[in-house]
């Protein structure tokens, strides 16, 4: 995958790397910060190991539900997590995204955590479509601004959560 099809976002958190890594590894933590602002998240399953799955449901205030999943490919504590993210059904199978545009069914994500001065952590997330059609790649690239806003909100929630734990 070329870098022109990769979405990249970086954020520095006022928390040590081990803590930032930990809140990606346990269901009770993920329920508190993962996902878009305003949605409630419940974890159906979290098997934090290569080949394991994080399966979750997000609910809007008006009751709309969307399932999602990660399948972990690589875990190198505490600096790297690689997973494929997809929309899913209640059983954990991959489903089509809940929007009209042809969005890729699978997105490869690499989260890298780097120690900064004064106990801070720089998180870099790199995302790219997997097994996508040219049209899906085009739509993915056109979605960078929306993804920047969405991950920005998710990472705002992560920052607030890290300040509490």
TrEMBL record:
InterPro entries: ASHA1/2-like_C (IPR013538), START-like_dom_sf (IPR023393). Residues 14-162 form the Activator of Hsp90 ATPase homologue 1/2-like C-terminal domain. Pfam families: AHSA1. Belongs to the AHA1 family. This is SRPBCC domain-containing protein.
């Amino acid at each position: 995958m070329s870098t022109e099809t990769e979405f990249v976002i970086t954020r520095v958190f006022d928390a040590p790397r081990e803590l930032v890594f930990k809140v990606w590894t346990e269901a009770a933590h993920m329920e508190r910060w993962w996902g878009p602002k305003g949605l409630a998240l419940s974890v159906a399953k979290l098997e934090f190991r290569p080949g394991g799955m994080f399966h979750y449901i997000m609910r809007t205030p008006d009751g709309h539900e969307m399932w999602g999943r990660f399948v972990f490919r690589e875990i190198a504590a505490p600096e790297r997590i690689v997973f494929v993210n997809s929309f899913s059904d209640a059983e954990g199978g991959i489903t089509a995204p809940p929007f009209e545009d042809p969005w890729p069914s699978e997105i490869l994500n690499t989260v890298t955590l780097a120690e900064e001065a004064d106990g801070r952590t720089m998180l870099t997330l790199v995302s790219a479509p997997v097994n996508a059609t040219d049209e899906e790649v085009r739509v993915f690239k056109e979605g960078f601004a929306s993804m920047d806003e969405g991950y920005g909100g998710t990472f705002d929630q992560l920052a607030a959560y890290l300040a509490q734990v």
